[in-house]
Amino acid sequence: MGPVTLRHVVLLVGLVAIHVFPARAADKPPNIIIMLADDLGYGDLSGFGNTTLPTPHIDQLMKEGVKLTHHLAAASVCTPSRAALLTGRYPVRFGMVPSGAIRVNIFVANRAGMLPNETTIAEQAKSVGYKTALVGKWHLGLSKDTYGDHLLHPMNQGFDQYYGHILTNMKDFSGDGERVLTSQRPNIYYAMVSLVILGISLFVWLYKQRYISKLFLVIGILLVLSPAIYFVFVFNTLRLLNGIVMRNHEVVEQPIKLESLMKRYVQEGTDFLEARERDKEPFLLILSWDHVHTAMRTSKEFQGRSKHGRYGDSILELDWGTGEIMSRIKNMDIGKNTLVYFTSDNGAHLEESDIHGNSDGGSNGILRGGKAHGAVDGGIRVPSSVWYPGKLPSNVVIDEPTMQMDMFTTITNLIGADLPTDRPIDGRDMYSLLTGKEHISPQEFFFHYCGDTVQAVRYRPRTGPSIWKLVYEVPDYLPGQQRCLFVCNCWDAIKLERPYLYDITSDPGENRPIDISSDKKYKEIAELMIKATEDHKNSIAPVDCRLSFFKLLWRPYMQPCCNFPYCSCVDIKYKDIE
Q1: What is the C-alpha to C-alpha distance for residues 424 and 430, in angstroms, rounded to an integer?
Q2: Closest to 340 in 3D by CA, of 322, 319, 317
Q3: Do 289 and 427 belong to one domain?
Q4: 340-390 pLDDT tens trace
Q5: For the segment 107-144, what is each residue's pLDDT rounded down to a tens digit?
Q6: How many CB atoms are located within 10 Å of the residue 444 CB?
Q7: Maximum distance among all Cα pairs of the chain, rounded to whole angstroms
Q8: Which CATH number goes with the domain that contains 344?
Q9: Are 248 and 230 contained in the same domain?
Q10: Which parts of 476-518 are beta strand (E)?
Q11: Is 101 within the bounds of a domain?
Q12: Which of 437, 329, 401 shows the shortest CA–CA distance to 32?
């Protein structure tokens, strides 16, 4: 053995360092920021082809990262879609689909929402030492059984802190007479008055014919009037009942001030990031923007700035907010090891309009349909991107189909957490696809629900360029149009005698259905997809429906109210912001 030289010593020290300190600073698990827009359409961003709405900050985020052109939500409405993103699971697996016509949570004070036994991406991050925060819209429940139990609150689902709107934005919050109920059912009050008159008349007739006593007459009239009074009260006070902003578990604003909401969300996100910069803790931050869900309200700086009314103004403010966060993170040390995921909970709401009939909805570009249209791509295919400097390539476009649920598994693996083994996880790790090491989606079959019904299945073969979509049900559109009155219902969708097959790669607008019987190739593809659908359905175990009619009902004894009995307060931190 020769003499020990300096070169040998350096080599030995290097080998020891590799074993003792295997992870360099640059190889540490990344911080995570998820930006989730609300009702943002596939055609709303200039980076996705819009020529009349400039969105430079979101476009820049996509140029500096990986742009996903075939990214899919688990539902075309927000409550189940958001539940799936947070858990990596089809919402039907844990009861976050409806048993009736109402497909989203509609009250703060009810028993509907995602149970805390689900494992969220926030809980995954906390399990490996991450600090977690949610800023913005939640829409997955508050209390489960009694007033104030907050079992469904974000801080009982893995988030260390929360600031935001616990339910969702609603037309009623505009304060100018708009009503979400009358948008869906324009004649609802006439129908209700007619039923009340009919019911009272029936009991009066029964009394006059001496079939019932005076006591039962009074009881009958009360039975007819009580639900009507409940109904009128609730749906005329939604701004007060549901317009609630919370800081952690405390109601700090009621009713909500929409005009300053984006500014506040940006400030809350910035405060969280600055705290993490100081303490050097890894973090997961979800910025769940209220834009561009109605009611459309922006700060004064953005009012009247676009060519598309209030909707366009909201897009511009959404772009500004995204740019503010990206600017802050790029100027921080923590930004050097941060992954940013930008997406929307579902497609644009085509039918949305203001009280004067002006459009308050967006564009889904070349895609057919929109929000609440079930399995039509305009409702579930959303503009998305992933930014991770130094680790993911820049200015790359991926046309492979992926799902929001995939990000649960991707992030879990990136941060070094363990995937749950006690339940099916539907998301697949898409990191190799993002890096360019793989070129085919990790998902082979994608199942598209409307409520608890599979309306379509998408198939990505392991070879070849084509992506196939087999449609079992289509929306019951208004005659000659590709839209419904306000939302398309699942229960009255048209069930096709023979499924429509589309090559979604060459026909993203779903305009040219292929005759399955015209070629053996198409028949075999359809049979394969039908078999996959049946196998998937068989994997779904019965669970308690968390969006059933009775769980969704407003319960006065569960209603949060600040400054009781006035139910009126202003967030002190932002009392001077406009």
Answers
A1: 17
A2: 322
A3: yes
A4: 999 999 999 999 988 888 889 999 999 999 999 999 999 999 999 999 999
A5: 999 999 999 999 999 999 999 999 999 999 999 999 99
A6: 15
A7: 119
A8: 3.40.720.10
A9: no
A10: 494-503
A11: yes
A12: 329
